[in-house]
Amino acid sequence: MAKTDRKTGVEKTLCEQYLYIAFVVACYWVVSIAIVFVNKSLLSARQDFDAPMFVTWFQCVFTYCVCLFFRRFRGIFTWFPDIQFSYATMKKTLPLSIVFVAMVTFNNLCLKYVGVAFYYLARSLTTVTNVAFTFAILRKSVSGGAITCCLVITIGYFAGIDQEGLSGGITIKGIIFGVLSSCCVSLNSIYTKKVLPAVDDSVWTLNYYNNLNASLLFIPLMFIFGELPHTVFVTQMTELDFWLLMSLGGVMGVLIGFVTGLQIKATSPLTHNISGTAKACVQTVIAVWAYHDIKSWAWWASNWIVLFGSAAYTKVQQMDMEKEFKNKTILPSHEKSPKSKDGATEKLLDSDSS
Known about the structure:
Residues 328-354 are annotated as: Disordered. This protein is 79% helix and 0% strand.
C-alpha cells in the first residue's frame, strides 16, 4: 500500500509539472502571436495611422512605467530587483539601446509592408546573420553543420520571396526592412551578452535601463520621420478604440519579456527555441486563415524549408555547445557530478540563446 501511495504521489507530481510546462508554453504562444497581430492592426494600411516610431515609443514608455511601478511597490513584488538609478549604468547600456531601437523599428516597418503570414519568413535570416556576426565580431568558429543549416534557411527564404512576389504580397521595402531586422536581432543578442554584466545579469534591470534609453532615443526619430505632427492631428488619437489597442500592445510588450523568461526557466533555452519555431509555424497558418489568403504549395514548401533549417540549426547548436563544454572541461571526470555538468551545459545554452 505504501509503494502504491508513493507511486501515486510521484505520478501526481510529474503530472503537475507537465501541466505547468504546458501552461507556460501556451502563454508564450498566445502572447507572442497576439503581439504580432496587435502591432499589425496598428500599422496596417487600413488604419489611418502611419506612425510606427510612435507605436514602438509608446510600448517602450509603457514597459518603463511598469518597471517603475514594480520598483515603487517592491514590498509586494519582492521578486523585482532593487534598482538604484545610475547615470553610469544608463551610459553602459546605451549601445544596446541603440541596437534595440533599430531592431524594433525595423521589426515594425517590416510588419507594416508585409503580411503576418510572411512576417516570419521575411525575418528568417536572423539565424544566418547571427552566424555571420558570431564569426565576424566574436571571432568564434562556425561548424559545418551550422553553415549547412544556414544554406537551407537561405534557400527557403529566397524561394518564399519568389512565391510571395508572384502573389503581389511583398514589396522591396518589406524585403529590405526584413533583412535589416534580422541583422539587428542578431546584433541585439550579441550586445545583450556584453551589457548584462553591467546590470548584475538582471534581465529586469536591463529592461528598466534599456526602455528608458529607448524612450529618449525615439523622440528625435519621431521628429525626423515627421510622426509627431501626424500623431497629433490623426483621427485615431482621439478615439478610445485606438488607445485601447495601443495599451494592449504595451501590455503585450511587457508580457512577452516575462513569458519568454518563464518558458526558458520552466524548460530550457533549447526547448524555448524549438517552441518559438513551432509557434512561428502556427502563427503563419493562423494568419493565412484570418486574412483569407490563398497560398500555393510552393509557398508552403518554402516555409517548411525555413522551419526545418531553423529546427536543425537549433539541434546542431546544442551538439556544438555540448562538444565545446566537454573540450573546455578541466576537472577529471570522476570529480564532476551530473548536476555540475548539466548546470554548466545549461549556462552555455543560456549564453547562446539570448
